[in-house]
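#structure-requests
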Amino acid sequence: MAARPATIRPKPLNVPVLDNNPQSTLEHTTTVPIFNGDSLARVLRPVISPQLMLGWSLGIVYLWFGALKLAHLSPVLELIRRTSPLLATAPFYNALALSELAIGLMLLAGVWRRWTAASAVLHLMGTFSVVFSSPQTAFRPSFPILTMEGEFVMKNLVLLAAAGTLWLLAGERANSH
């Protein structure tokens, strides 16, 4: 017998009404539907795991950034020129673009999860290194005030945490088999 699909039903909740009009016919509280996020999580959990969500979202970012680099449309090229001039030369820049595309495709496909996540961690550590190798690019006038480039690089902490989480989860799965 097939399982019935879960339904999402808002829970009614008494909410105070901000109405001080003496002629109002509203009561001082009223019942309104409130969305229950737990219900949505129960519906989504059998369809997609947190690990898949992380992998797919990170994969999309990698594909997008790699494709922009390969098409020479990425705004990050100028940042790379200032912080790692050798990496901004055609062979290395194209290799970077292709590696980002490969990581993105592998994350989306869910193949070689442990090695793909480890590659992403190493790549993101490299991008984050701008903070140390070129602090004048990341901070202005000085630490802790971030430039736009610094903010761009600092967001990689979140991407690094996502890739690190995928790496740890893939390692747990590999060790349990």
